[in-house]
Amino acid sequence: MTKDVLLEIGTEEIPAKFMPAALAQLENTTKAKLTELRISYGAVRAVGTPRRLAVIVKEVAITQADKHSENKGPSIKIAFGQDGTPTKAALGFARGQGVEPAALVVKDEYVYAIVQEKGRLVAELLPGLLADIVTSLSFPKSMHWGDLDMRFVRPIRWLVALFGNEVVPFTLPGVTSGKVTRGHRFLGQAEVAVNSVADYFACLSENFVMVDQDVRRQIIKEQIETLAVSRGGTATIDQELLEEVVFLVEYPTALCGDFEAKYLSLPPEAIITPMREHQRYFPVAGKDGKLLPMFITVRNGGSEHIDIVRHGNERVLKARLADARFFFEEDRKLPLADRVEKLKTIVFQEGLGTLYDKVLRLERLATGCGQILGVSQDELTIAKRGAHLSKADLVTGMVCEFTELQGIMGREYAKLSGERPEVAEAVFEHYLPRFAGDSLPQTTAGRLISIADKMDNIVATFSRDLIPTGSQDPYALRRQALGMVNILIDAKYHVSLSAIAAQAMDLLGITDNERRTKLVTDIQEFFRLRIKNILTEENLRYDMIDAVLATGNDDIYDTWLRAKAMAVEGGTVAMQKAVQALVRVGNLAKNATSETIDASLFTADAEHALYKAYIEAHTVIANYHAEKNYQGILTVLAAMAAPIDAFFGAVMVMVEDAKVKNNRLALLKSIATLAAQTADLTKIVVI
User: Fold this and answer.
1) Quick one: DSSP state of residue 621?
2) Which of 229, 480, 591, 630 could form a disulfide bond with 565, CB atoms 3.0-4.6 angstroms apart?
3) Can you tell me the distance from the alpha carbon of 208 to that of 250, in angstroms, rounded to the nearest whole number?
């Protein structure tokens, strides 16, 4: 026999951004706690609204599973005296296990206590279990209220705890569980009795609470799309914004508002940003893809007095757009280039000058990086000009008011100032990627400035000993390094990180050699972890990743190519055999004192055959390295397994004749060196 369990934690409004993680944590914690207590269960589902976190567990057993265990005690020599009587050690062990000394059994020269623990009624365990689930939840920020010691994301106002149709009684500071929940703050009843778990969703639905976030999400999406179509447009539904709105409302009703068409003269982003970031509105576009003078928002309630709500939202947006229009018109009075001088008034980082100083560094670092990559002179000119203007929009009124528009307005103002389109695009692209999943810069100048900007930030911050640790990353350096890695891979740029870092250190005036060496080492390790994370997310085996990273290569794109080749070839039967052979080669090669090979000293056919295979492989691999054909290199290395195995089967390496021994070791050392140029194959796990 089974029953369902319901736990609802009623609170003040929880920040929407906390909700997805909180629900996942609630679901996982519930499963873990049930399993820990040997309570069998069926499906587990966490649901929630701004005012509640709830978890429903289906088919929970009414009795805890029995526990059978064999607990190991002292050895028989210690447990029994010479006459066979239990010693104090055996008596103490038996007492601690709750069994009689006579019940101890002997096995493998040790005594064991066979413990049979009968499962308890789940109804007796649930009070402690549910209380433990609540107190185990953690949040980015918690608070305490009144004079209570308990901390939670928001004050807990009520608790619903049911096992079937029976209340599970437990108490937390200031609140006791029961079967009474609360409906919508304005539309529903203040108190709603839930008589059984099966009634939970229906009770809340009758009181204007859609407790299932998936249902709310679907309804909101359908309402927005239907409204947009009815007005002759298409809603632009940002998934992140949609997720936030889902957890801002309990009973959604979408409505459409209008704004004056004159504001459409603003850049689209200057309209969309106040809508999305400040008001949580969804923009609407026409068939031509251009914005229409309307928006869609979602209220937390029904359709009553919807016109009043619409009018209020229109007034708020009008004020926002009026501000945006004012700043835009004021900003246009001054060319973007004329604002660069004002960057001298903004400090970049303590002890590292102003943003103007940073701009001067970016001009040189972006062009320096371009020279390393061999880009054209025209691209270098675009990159230098783009770097010069890259931070100028930070002192415009629009960006000061709407910080999310940095880069976007820089591009717009650069165009309006008569700059080349490529320069304007580079000003925008140098901020990319701004967040996980964001687009990457696609122009050469945009890539160069973005790489320069991010490396300058990393080197400057590392030079102040502000290296990210644990969860602390106030300058978002991990995100910037990850962005750099993705740019280098996407652009297929072969460039040494240490070379770029060295230029950045030169521009920052870091001259002490010991300090520079430490900075380069720290930065290389920092980036190594970023590329490792990317390769792990792409489901590459950990041993293959380690094998590639062990080469110490700081060319990110080259490392990525090696890892991709390893993913294809590393798991093949031929490569697995080669790994075994090359590991044996590497172990003996450690004894080599030279890589000079004298073919006249070979005495066996297997030696000549292996030397010939090595010479041929060396030539082919050298060509493949020039072509970055790492899959081909691994194929060549795999083919060497047969002559290596034949060599070891025919010859003894460590013979008494020193010349013969050292010559054979030199051959093995040369083969090991050849293989190590691509990856440390000794790290590959042979399956």
Assistant:
1) H
2) 630
3) 7
Q: How far apart are CA 78 and CA 84, in angstroms?
A: 11
Q: What is the DSSP letter of 274?
A: I
The one-character DSSP state at 81 is: -
Residue 603: count other Cβ atoms within 10 Å of its Cβ: 14
3-state secondary structure of 87: coil
Q: What is the 3-state secondary structure (H, E, C) of 26-67?
A: HHHHHHHHHHHCCCCCCCEEEEEECCEEEEEEEEEECECCCE
Taking the C-alpha atoms of residue 212 and residue 191, their distance in angstroms, rounded to an integer, is 19
Residue located via tokens 């060196």: 673
Determine the Cα–Cα distance for residues 191 and 592; give it in Å rounded to an integer: 83
Question: Which residue, 384, 532, 386, 516, is CA-closest to 459?
Answer: 516
**β-strands 192-193, 180-181 pairing:** antiparallel
**pLDDT at position 568:** 85
pTM, to two decimals: 0.81
Beta bridge partners of 63: 121
Assign 3-class secondary structure to 445-493: HHHHHHHHHHHHHHHHHHHCCCCCECCECCCCHHHHHHHHHHHHHHHCC
481 vs 503: CA distance, rounded Å: 17
Residue 308, CA distances (Å) to 186, 249, 583 in order? 16, 18, 77
Secondary element (H or E) of residue 379: helix 377-389
- By the 8 A CB rule, do 551 and 676 touch? yes
| Tokens 């409302």 belong to residue | 249
Within 10 Å of residue 32's Cβ, how many Cβ atoms? Answer: 12
Per DSSP, the three-state class of 582 is helix
Report the C-alpha gap between 30 and 43 in whole angstroms: 11
- The low-confidence residues of the chain, meaning pLDDT below 50, are none
pLDDT in tens, 459-505: 999 999 888 887 788 889 999 999 999 999 999 999 999 999 999 99
CB-CB neighbours of 314 under 10 Å? 17
Peptide bond into 433 cis (omega under 30): yes
Measured CA to CA, the distance from residue 620 to residue 579 in angstroms comes to 19
C-alpha–C-alpha distance, residues 167 and 320, integer Å = 50
Q: What is the per-residue pLDDT for 77?
A: 81
Nearest of 684, 613, 599, 687 to residue 646 by alpha carbon? 613
| 603: its two tokens | 């005495």
Instruction: Report which of 423, 487, 425, 483 is spatially closest to residue 457, judged by C-alpha positions.
Output: 483
pLDDT of residue 240: 92
Q: Which pLDDT score is estimated for 79?
A: 79
Q: Give the C-alpha separation, 57 to 468, whole Å.
A: 40
Task: Decide if 664 contacts 644 (C-beta within 8 A).
Answer: no
C-alpha distances (whole Å) from 639 to each of 329, 624, 664 are 69, 15, 20
